[in-house]
Design a protein that fits this description.
The structure is a single chain. It is elongated, with a radius of gyration of 17 Å. The two termini are about 30 Å apart. Helix 1 runs antiparallel to helix 4. It has about 170 residues and is an all-alpha fold. It has one domain: Ferritin (Up-down Bundle), CATH 1.20.1260.10. It is built from five helices and no strands. Residues about 1-5 have low confidence and may be disordered.
Length: about 170
């Protein structure tokens, strides 16, 4: 799912990528932005509601992960605006355009949160790899590099989360 960008208006820029390429990349960036904003708040939901024997460890882990994702949110939004676009990063935008399923509000046990977050991180990782390919094929190595950087971090955290489930 991509976020539709306004057809008639971009910010003026001397960026040398063709406008059609920039528009496509801005759509991919905004789609990623919506999903990352959603992931951040799903992590906070887990952070606030986790219970069980490993409460402290998971409470702190989920909060740290949310902070890390917040950094990605800023990088993605700034790249969209660097290309002359608008960043659509409100919670309402995230709710409408995120590729993630709704987080169950009744999840409590640490293992349940871990499994839910593993599924979400795997989804984000898959989407990022698709965007890396699209950006590379479009000749936008800057956006491809950004998606690659975030992908490496998401893959690492996916491994961290999965390691708790073994």
């Amino acid at each position: 799912m991509t976020v539709s960008c306004p057809e008639t208006k971009l910010f003026p820029t001397q960026h040398d990528l063709p406008e059609s390429t920039r528009r496509h990349m801005i759509e991919d960036l905004n789609s990623t932005l919506a999903t990352l904003v959603d992931l951040k708040f799903q992590l906070k939901q887990a952070h606030w509601n986790v219970k069980g024997i490993h409460f402290v460890q998971l409470h702190e882990l989920f909060d740290a992960l949310a902070g890390e994702v917040d950094g990605y949110v800023d990088l993605v939004a700034e790249r969209a605006t660097t290309l002359g676009g608008y960043a659509y990063g409100t919670v309402r935008d995230a709710a409408e355009h995120s590729v993630l399923p709704e987080y169950p509000v009744d999840a409590v046990h640490g293992k349940d949160h871990l499994q839910l977050l593993v599924e979400r991180y795997a989804t984000v990782a898959q989407k990022l790899r698709g965007h890396i390919d699209e950006a590379s094929q479009a000749g936008d190595q800057g956006t491809a590099d950004l998606f690659t950087e975030i992908s490496r971090g998401v893959d690492l955290r996916l491994w961290f989360l999965e390691s708790h489930l073994i």
